[in-house]
Amino acid sequence: MATIVLKLDPERLENPDADLRYLVPDFLAQRSEGVIADDGYDYLENYEMVIFLQVTDVARASEIILQVLATERIHGNDLRPGCTVGVERDGTYEVIFPPGFQGEFRVAPL
Q1: Is the separation of the CB atoms in 5 and 107 below 8 Å?
Q2: Strand locations in the chain, DSSP E?
Q3: How does pLDDT run across 15-63, given as a tens digit for each residue?
Q4: What is the CATH number of the domain that holds 37?
C-alpha cells in the first residue's frame, strides 16, 4: 500500500470544520470503490490538518482525488484554495496539487 497525504489550511477554507478529518477521507473512499482508505490524521503547529490515505493504486487514487478537488464541495468547502496533496515516494513527498507547488511539504509537527 502507498500513502497519499492531503494538507488542509483552515485559513483558506470557507468552512474549516474539524469534521473534515472524517468527511474528506470517507468521501474519497466511497468515490474510489476501495482504492482509497482512511489512515488517520494529525495537526501541524500552524493548525493545518494532515489527512493520511492508504491507496492500492497511486495513479487511480491521484486521479480520483484531483477530480474530487476540481468538481466537489465537501461540507461547504471548495478544498482547492486550502489543499496541498503529496504522494509518498521513498520517504519523501511528491506534490501533485496544486500545480507548480514550490516549498516544503511537511506532514509531521516540528
Answers
A1: yes
A2: 2-8, 36-43, 49-55, 83-89, 92-97
A3: 999 999 999 999 999 999 999 999 999 999 989 999 999 999 999 999 9
A4: 3.30.70
Domain residues for the domain of 48 are 2-97
Whole-prediction pTM = 0.94
Cell (9 digits) for 68 = 474530487
Check: CB of residue 10 under 8 Å from CB of residue 48: yes
Between the alpha carbon of residue 32 and those of residues 29, 97, 109, the distances in Å are 5, 18, 29
Closest alpha carbon to 8 in 110, 103, 70, 97: 97
Give the H or E element holding residue 67: helix 58-71
Q: What stretches of 14-105 adopt beta strand conformation (E)?
A: 36-43, 49-55, 83-89, 92-97
